[in-house]
Design a protein that fits this description.
It is built from two helices and three strands; from the N terminus they run αβαββ. It has helices at 10-13, 39-50; strands at 22-27, 55-64, 71-79. The radius of gyration is 13 Å and the shape is globular.
Length: 84
């Protein structure tokens, strides 16, 4: 049940974010089995995905999206380290 290996948040990826800035990322292609997890389990799964940038996931929710499965996951997170 692996998640996609990359995410697309330019503010996070280039270090432009500061503590307390909330970002939102849209993850398309996460496995359908993500639906079977509890909210806490989804937070844990996405927390591992974003840990490489010292990001802390705050919220994960399913949102409509124009894909084959018809939805994607909205991930709201903060960057854990100060920019610079």
């Amino acid at each position: 049940m692996a998640l996609p290996k990359t995410h697309h948040c330019s503010a996070c990826s280039n270090g432009a974010a500061t503590d307390g800035v909330l970002h939102e990322d849209l993850v398309v292609g996460a496995p359908l089995s993500m639906e079977d997890l509890t909210d806490a389990q989804r937070l844990d799964r996405f927390a591992l995905k974003y840990a490489h940038d010292s990001c802390q996931v705050r919220e994960v929710k399913r949102v409509p999206h124009d894909t084959l499965s018809g939805y994607a996951w909205s991930v709201r997170f903060t960057e854990g380290r100060a920019a610079g």
